[in-house]
Amino acid sequence: MTRFFHRLGAALALAAATAGAALAQGAYPSQPIKWLVPYAAGGGTDSIARQLADAMQPSIGQPVLIDNRPGASTNIAVGLLMQAKPDGYTVMQAENAALLFNEHMFAKLPYKPASDFTYIGAIGRIPIALVVRSDFQAQNLQQFVGYVKASGDKASYASPGIGTPHHMAMELLKQKAGLTITHVAYKGAAPALQDMLGGQVPMMMLDLGTALPYLKSGKLRALAIALPQRAKALPDVPTFNELGYPEVNAFAFHGLIGPAGMPAPAVEKLNAELRKALQAPRVQQVFGEFGFEALPGTPKEFYDMARAQSAYWGQVIRTSGVQLD
Asked: Cα(first)–Cα(last) distance of the chain, in Å?
């Protein structure tokens, strides 16, 4: 009889724990979710966030509110995230800066990406391409490398700013191809692109979300894509890998994070809703229009990918000497 009651007690305890976990999952979310975007409204990151928030909101059962907090290489938004309660009601769309670059570019960064974030799920990547004006004399990457080497230290390239994926992608190409090209940093992709089209600078690394309209109109020409395989949006443009530079891989990487210590039910719920949203036909259509490639996966897969990419880019950044403080 005693053994029976022990078994009954264990069974009841297991049932209570299971019910409690189910209740906890069912209770989240019970209020609106704030989605921090570390860039201004109207840009590519903001557009991605709003598409996903709209797709997730009906099944998540609560409003998903976009809160744009640009500035300081995304550190303003990260600061707000770290001040928030780790209850699943404040999340942030993170990119290369917060996930991969800043820990190597700032001597005194007030957070550690490896331990101060909850990794909810990868969102995807926007491929980066080497683009030139349509009248640029080099017709392919081989001719481009020859042009730059023949120019001595007179060749220059534009970027949306120091420490951006575009900047670091060109620094990577410079290292792997042995090139010297002067960096001209702008405050955003729009003014950099405007000067490039106007003839002030002849080349830049540019994300496909920004580049595609100009490539399709013939104002720009893509010489190579910085991905291991060809981009779906530009299947006729070869990769650096195909052209003899297998280590030139670079992209704008997006993922969803929260403060450290988020409860597992909230992480699981958000990850499931994010993966579902990435498969939604409308989201896939819009993302496909500007070259965004979804990377749905588990929180651990997201964490592992981010840490591997951070280690890779840390070496590139140390070699280039780029610092932000």
From this structure: 71
CATH superfamily of 32-124+252-320: Bordetella uptake gene, domain 1 (3.40.190.150)
Question: How high is the pLDDT of residue 88?
Answer: 97
User: Whole-angstrom Cα distance, residue 25 to residue 279?
Assistant: 22
Contact between residue 196 and residue 203 where contact means Cβ atoms under 8 Å apart:
yes
Instruction: Please choose, from the candidates 126, 101, 125, the residue with its C-alpha nearest in 3D space to the C-alpha of residue 113.
Output: 101
What pLDDT score does 157 carry? 96
Count of other CB atoms within 10 angstroms of residue 284: 14
In the chain (325 residues long), the average pLDDT of successive 10-residue segments reads 39 39 65 95 87 95 95 93 97 96 94 97 95 94 96 91 93 96 91 92 92 94 94 92 94 96 97 96 88 93 97 95 89
User: Max Cα separation, the chain?
Assistant: 92
Beta-carbon contacts of residue 159 (< 8 Å; ≥ 6 apart): 166, 167, 170, 183, 184, 185, 186, 192, 204, 205
pLDDT at 202: 93
Tokens 């220059």 sit at which residue? 156
- What is the spatial distance between Cα 163 and Cα 185, in angstroms, rounded to a whole number? 10
Instruction: Provide the residue ranges of all domains of the chain, joining segments of one domain with +.
Output: 32-124+252-320, 127-225
Fold agreement between 32-124+252-320 and 127-225: yes
CATH superfamily name and code, 127-225: Periplasmic binding protein-like II (3.40.190.10)
Question: What distance in Å separates the CA atoms of residue 20 and residue 24, rounded to the nearest whole number?
Answer: 6
- CA 62/CA 33 separation, integer angstroms: 7
Angstrom CA distances, 243 to 52, 79, 224, 274, stand at 35, 41, 8, 36
